Amino acid sequence: MRYGIPKAAAMAGMAFLLVSSLVAVRSGPAPPMDDTYIHLVYGRSILRGQPLEFNAGTPSSGFTSPLWLVPSAAAVPAGTRWAPAVLMALSALAGCAAVLLSGAGPAPLFLLLLGPLLFHGASGMETALACLAVVMVWRRLESGREPDLRGGLLLAGAVLVRPELALLAVPLALGKGKPGGRRLAALLWPPLALGGLWVAWNLHATGLPLPSTFYAKQAGAAAYGLIPGLRGLARGLAVGAPLLVPAGAWAAFGLLRRRDPLGLVPALTLIPALLLQPNAFFQLRYHLPWLAAFALAAGRMLAGRRWPAALLALSLVPGMVLFASRRVRAADDVEAIDVRPAQLLRREAPRGSTVAAADVGAMGWISGLRVLDLDGLVTPRALTEGRDWDWVAGRADYLAAFPRQYADLVESAGDRLVPMARFESPSPVICGEESVAVWRVEGSD
Hints:
globular; 2 domains
């Protein structure tokens, strides 16, 4: 299908690419999230002929965006130092495309000024690509196209970017009247086929149908608590999208009253985000798809209404500035907490050693060591077998962990842990604590 790009949308898209690139350059070489390095490790495994293995020889399901592994693999030949920058540039292009294709009216301006999208637009993560998928589904529904194979391929791509986007099958199926059996089958078989392959891989790797990251992050969210998480989410939205949320909700309600399937898109992207990640962790990363849908709905409602649209756009500016600042500080945080410990062990640890770590991305990408993931993202046994000292000591030669979060583990180890270094973050924004320590495990095999 064809998308027309209005001049205002083209200008907003180019402005987004410029601003996100400037913020990324100002941030330095490190991405604002350790998860970017996780994707690079999996991308490297593909090029090495050991696909979907975080540690060589061990199948893994520690990724929630299979499609993002394609640009991750494409970035790997740039080398250990420059591959993160290449992947960040590719994610910025995805964010630019989302703004470009968001249509006429003020929606492109809302996306341009959306602070969380600026933070993640050049993060090297799949987030901007997920927003692009939402935009493309929205535009398809606007065009009034009936369900067909092209819609099915679009839906399959969306599912492989973020699995919860499978819910967009509902508005796509209702896009134009009641679809016949053949058209509905054409819409559904691509995501079902590719999604089924993904489930089969997860079962092969871990015995669980969903990625191991799902179970790890659900355990973390449960430990944090629902009510504190919702409070933090409300604060983040009050800063990042103060008028966008009520305007988008009102616009979606109006669409639903008219029985327009477009009204389902904001709701069906919001609900899984609240259920799966009901907090503001990771700078609203998991809430960006529904925020993009709210921007599209609000843009549709305010098309031709200059002053209300200008007021909404102006309300986004403080959040844009704040999230741009956080983007810079988050890169400093990752550099201190994740990159430098990995560089230390690359210099000091013998090849073939194993390190137990709380953040595994940079450690796996930079150090070249086998990684035992204490959070269970890529080592799901940590969630089922426990993370006590006996479990770690029998498997790891080094430990890199947050001193407070893993205080019980460190205390139970006693003199078996020999301190090597401690790294302090100048701006704790995205990592778990303001410092991380590295120990050598005394008497390890």
